[in-house]
TrEMBL record:
The lineage of its organism: Bacteria, Pseudomonadati, Pseudomonadota, Alphaproteobacteria, Sphingomonadales. This is Undecaprenyl-diphosphatase. Its main location: membrane. It is found in: Cell membrane. Bacitracin is thought to be involved in the inhibition of peptidoglycan synthesis by sequestering undecaprenyl diphosphate, thereby reducing the pool of lipid carrier available. It is an enzyme of class 3 (hydrolase). PANTHER family: UNDECAPRENYL-DIPHOSPHATASE. Belongs to the UppP family. It is a multi-pass membrane protein. It catalyses: di-trans,octa-cis-undecaprenyl diphosphate + H2O = di-trans,octa-cis-undecaprenyl phosphate + phosphate + H(+). The gene is uppP. Catalyzes the dephosphorylation of undecaprenyl diphosphate (UPP). Confers resistance to bacitracin.
């Protein structure tokens, strides 16, 4: 498979899975392991295409961001609380992620960890869906600071590949009394500082690769970025509608089946 075709395939994987509770990093790791990609060759590529998914959220919710920005200049309480909650939720991942960077990178080389995490995460989703009562907190600005901090610590579970950042934050918010749509949107917005921060750190660690043009190449990176952006645009809109009608159970069963299948293939 040539680099451009691989770039399209991985861009689709990233765009589809980044904001669903199924783990985009886990899927990219499994794709490398099961389809025979050279993980080192595509490492920088996988970092950059995440930014395409981030851009999709910025485009879809530009009115929200614009309202918050103008509200900050006007010192509106709602806008201040919105930004406060995002910053509070971002801090745990920033601190713990930097402290455990080497250990996290070691886990990225273990596809079996991903497969097990997919199964365990799927079971956890089913349990939480059954036990947690519908939340009453509507609107990110209405979330108490302690709730935002709790979601931030729960997000750190996603440092284990296969757990899913979006799944951890959404289900964590639900467990802390946030209603479904607000929990999903908070997860989308929290992805922006979290993924930007992680991407900057990773790009800094691979700056030589970026400067020398090693790896997949700028053409493949550009293709993957665009594909990830377009696919994420479609998936985010679809996801909010699916969750509102059917909850998270379909994604839980997908995780269990995908994880079990991956374990089976990895042991052959």
């Amino acid at each position: 498979m040539n680099d451009l075709l691989t770039a399209v395939l991985l861009g689709i994987v990233e765009g589809v899975t980044e904001f669903l509770p199924v783990s985009s990093t886990g899927h990219l790791i499994l794709a490398s392991a099961l389809l025979g990609y050279d993980e080192a060759h595509w490492r920088l590529f996988n970092i950059v295409i995440q930014l395409g998914a981030i851009l999709a959220v910025a485009v879809l919710y530009w009115r929200t961001f614009w309202t918050v920005l103008t509200g900050l200049f006007a010192r509106e309480a709602g806008a201040v609380r919105f930004v406060r909650n995002l910053l509070i939720a971002f801090i745990p991942a920033a601190v713990i992620g930097l402290a455990l960077k080497d250990q996290i990178e070691a886990l990225l080389l273990q596809p079996r960890v991903v497969a097990v995490a997919l199964i365990v995460g799927g079971i956890a989703i089913l349990v939480i869906e059954r036990l947690v009562k519908p939340g009453t907190t509507r609107g990110i600005a209405d979330m108490p600071a302690r709730t935002a901090l709790g979601v931030g610590f729960i997000q750190c579970l996603a440092m284990i590949p296969g757990v899913s950042r979006s799944g951890a934050t959404i289900l964590g918010a639900l467990s802390l009394g946030v209603e479904r749509r607000t929990a999903a949107e908070f997860s989308f917005f929290l992805a922006i500082p979290t993924m930007l921060g992680a991407s900057v750190v990773e790009l800094g660690g691979h700056h030589r690769e970026l400067m020398t043009g090693q790896g997949a190449g700028l053409g493949a990176i550009a293709v993957g970025f665009v594909v990830s952006f377009v696919v994420a645009l479609l998936v985010v809109r679809w996801f909010v509608g699916i969750v509102g009608r059917h909850g998270f159970a379909p994604f839980a069963w997908y995780r269990i089946v995908a994880g079990a299948l991956a374990l089976l293939l990895l042991t052959q």
